[in-house]
């Protein structure tokens, strides 16, 4: 009797250990992805990339994942799923380390600065006294060929990471759903997502820590004096260090999978099927890979012709697009809207926004476990919170700072009548040898920002007595109007509404908490509107479409919208366009949050259509498989 009890409890114990291990692997996977997203603005600044190009890099891992998802659908029931998950984790570890290569392959980061030892590229030097021609900077994104090489390296590493992540969720979720006790599948999946969702939080917190360290700390030392601070718009943090940390974590989290068996005996056998399923017959173990590839379009079409399944997947694509834009560029929006540093923006996201989403996921799973509602009720559990989350986003359109006054960009110089010249040179600095590719913003005492001390017409500087490498004040600035001699301070002018950053992030976090309550209901509806034998294939189709229609294009779409909000671009060598220097903050805010709300509204419409279809399909419940395709 005792042995029988032990035998019954053994599978339960094993599946719980598997849930824990898989939660940790997904946590580290999401930690890496979130950390990389927290560094996007920093990498843009380091190599001179646009937001669209970095958005494309961010989404390229979905391409590697998407290409192989067909083979995952085929081999899902034929291989040792835990072992394939472990191999995928090790491949992701290698890809994470590869992402850090551009730092080691490039020259040290260089920026325009004032040196007390003599000479300056950034102060006003009369043209007749300037003999040095404009040259390309080495490092800092000045060399287009170097930037192209680094972009290709990042892109290749992202594709490799996507290939490694192919088996993680489909194999893991199907393994849990197959061997969990009856009624516990929803709870285990909720626990899985609730633990793993802390991965992005830890990733952003890691980003907040690493971005406070100077990028070339390995080359100049931790104690070397710098003339930059993290609040300087030219600051570049040690983005590469966190990638090495995530690489090590992924390798460690992958090891336990090599010790799980291929097959377990479930605590209670699944109910026998009274009729055979055509999908199971067509994808039997005797089917060859070539035959499977031939029949795949037909099987995919059959799955997509089920109205409820298709509508649910398309709605998930819309919500995932919104999440992709939020995860990829929220830190950048906080930085430009409210003047936060990259490190502080990552800290806010990791400490406030993502934990709220985790609580929402866990609470949604508990509700599913306690209530076990029919699919009709599940639709309402999705529609109501998602509608509330949209309403909570409306105030964000009005919570932001306008772009600061920048001479020659969005306001004229003091010596001209033109208020929108879109020219960086004027009479007050026409005799200065200002370089086209310089970006060293200063804030004049007239509360106008200038692209560099040279563009402000500054000829003298006061050096900080405590740090001879740092400029304290620029003086004799001919373009700056004010009392006495024109003065300017290094760095951008203070934003007009930095006090709004905490209310904004709290509102975004609460909207995310409300929306995350719908995650588990949607996911369980997808699983319960297909036959038991179709689950692995349905999950594969689900992830294929979500990656193809959401996570692959959405970051590039959001990046393009952000790029179109740019009003002044930095210049690299040969007058080539670099990263954006200044955005129109009102346009940036409206386009970014407008895309967020637009995707969510479209998802709500698709969910409502799915609800209308469910009303005509009696007998659907979370614990009962459909008798007919829906």
Name the poorly predicted regions.
Answer: 1-13, 114-119, 267-285
Calculate Rg over CA atoms.
28 Å
Q: What class do helices, strands and sheet pairing give?
A: mainly alpha
Shape: elongated
Approximately what portion of the residues adopt beta-strand conformation? 5-15%
What's the rounded overall pLDDT mean? 80
- CATH topology of the largest domain, what is it called? Growth Hormone, Chain: A
- End-to-end C-alpha gap: 44 Å
Care to count the β-strands? 7
The major beta sheet can be summarized as: 3 strands, antiparallel
> At the fourth CATH level, what is the homologous superfamily of the largest domain?
MFS general substrate transporter like domains
Transmembrane segments: 84-105, 151-175, 187-215, 235-260, 308-330, 342-366, 378-398, 500-517, 537-562, 592-612
Pfam family, one: Kazal_2
GO molecular function: prostaglandin transmembrane transporter activity; sodium-independent organic anion transmembrane transporter activity
Membrane topology: Multi-pass membrane protein
What does this structure look like?
- Mean pLDDT is 80; it is low at 1-13, 114-119 and 267-285.
- Strand 6 and strand 7 (577-583) form a beta hairpin.
- The chain is mainly alpha-helical.
- The two termini are 44 Å apart.
- The protein folds into 2 domains: 10-133 and 142-263 and 286-402 and 498-614, MFS general substrate transporter like domains (Growth Hormone, Chain: A, Up-down Bundle), CATH 1.20.1250.20; 427-490, no CATH class.
- The chain has helices at residues 2-38, 40-47, 51-75, 81-99, 101-105, 144-164, 168-179, 185-196, 198-210, 217-220, 239-254, 278-282, 289-304, 307-338, 342-371, 375-393, 501-516, 519-528, 535-551, 554-563, 585-614; strands at residues 442-444, 449-450, 458-463, 471-477, 488-490, 566-571, 577-583.
- A 3-stranded antiparallel β-sheet has the order 2-1-5, with no helix packed on it. The chain has a two-stranded antiparallel sheet with strand order 3-4.
- Residues 18-615 form the Major facilitator superfamily (MFS) profile domain.
């Amino acid at each position: 009797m005792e042995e029988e009890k032990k035998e019954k409890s053994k599978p339960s114990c094993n599946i719980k250990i598997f849930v824990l291990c898989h939660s940790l692997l997904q946590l580290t996977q999401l930690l890496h992805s979130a950390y990389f997203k927290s560094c996007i603005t920093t990498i843009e600044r380091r190599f001179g990339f646009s937001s669209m190009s970095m958005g494309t890099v961010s989404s390229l891992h979905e391409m590697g994942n998407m290409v192989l998802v067909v083979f995952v659908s085929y081999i899902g029931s034929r291989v040792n799923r835990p072992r394939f998950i472990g191999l995928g984790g090790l491949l992701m570890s290698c890809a994470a380390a590869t992402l850090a290569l551009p730092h080691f392959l490039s020259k040290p980061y260089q920026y325009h600065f004032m040196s007390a030892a003599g000479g300056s590229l950034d102060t006003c030097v009369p043209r007749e006294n300037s003999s040095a021609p404009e040259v390309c900077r080495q490092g800092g994104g000045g060399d287009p060929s170097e930037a192209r090489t680094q972009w290709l390296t990042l892109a290749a590493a992202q594709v490799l990471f996507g290939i490694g992540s192919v088996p993680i969720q489909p194999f893991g979720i199907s393994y849990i759903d197959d061997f969990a006790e009856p009624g516990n599948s929803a709870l285990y999946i909720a626990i899985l997502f609730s633990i793993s969702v802390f991965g992005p939080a830890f990733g952003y917190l890691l980003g907040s820590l690493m971005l406070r360290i100077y990028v070339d700390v390995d080359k100049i030392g931790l104690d070397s004096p710098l003339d930059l601070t993290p609040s300087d718009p030219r600051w570049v943090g040690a983005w590469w260090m966190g990638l090495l940390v995530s690489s090590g974590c992924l390798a460690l989290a992958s090891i336990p999978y090599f010790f799980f068996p291929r097959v377990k005996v479930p605590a209670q056998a699944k109910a026998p099927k009274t009729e055979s399923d055509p999908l199971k017959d067509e994808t039997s173990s005797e089917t060859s890979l070539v035959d499977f590839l031939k029949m795949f379009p037909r099987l995919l079409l059959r799955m997509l012709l089920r109205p409820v399944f298709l509508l649910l997947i398309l709605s998930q694509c819309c919500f995932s697009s919104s999440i992709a834009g939020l995860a990829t560029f929220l830190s950048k929006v906080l930085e430009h809207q409210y003047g936060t540093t990259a490190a502080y923006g990552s800290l806010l996201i990791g400490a406030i926004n993502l934990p709220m989403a985790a609580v929402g996921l866990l609470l949604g799973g508990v509700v599913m476990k306690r209530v076990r509602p029919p699919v009709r009720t599940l639709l309402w559990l999705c529609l109501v919170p998602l509608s509330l989350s949209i309403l909570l986003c409306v105030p964000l359109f009005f919570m932001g700072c306008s772009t600061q006054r920048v001479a020659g960009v969005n306001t004229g110089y003091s010596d001209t009548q033109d208020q929108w010249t879109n020219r960086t040179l004027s009479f007050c600095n026409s005799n200065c040898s200002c370089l086209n590719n310089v970006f060293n913003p200063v804030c004049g005492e007239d509360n106008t920002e200038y692209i560099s001390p040279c563009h402000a017409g500054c000829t003298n500087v006061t050096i900080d007595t405590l740090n001879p490498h740092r400029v304290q004040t620029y003086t004799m600035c001919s373009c700056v109007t004010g009392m006495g001699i024109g003065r300017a301070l290094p760095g951008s002018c203070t934003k007009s509404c930095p006090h709004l950053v905490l209310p904004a992030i709290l509102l975004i976090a609460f909207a995310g908490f409300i929306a995350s309550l719908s995650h588990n209901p949607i996911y369980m509806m997808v699983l319960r509107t297909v036959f038991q034998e179709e689950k692995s294939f349905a999950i594969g189709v689900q992830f294929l479409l979500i990656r193809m229609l959401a996570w692959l294009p959405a970051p590039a779409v959001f990046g393009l919208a952000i790029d179109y909000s740019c009003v002044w671009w930095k210049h690299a060598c040969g007058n080539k366009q670099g990263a954006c220097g200044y955005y129109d903050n009102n346009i940036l805010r409206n386009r970014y949050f407008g895309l967020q709300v637009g995707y969510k509204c479209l998802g709500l419409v698709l969910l409502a259509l799915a609800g209308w279809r469910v009303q005509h399909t009696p007998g659907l419940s979370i614990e009962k498989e459909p008798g007919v395709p829906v």
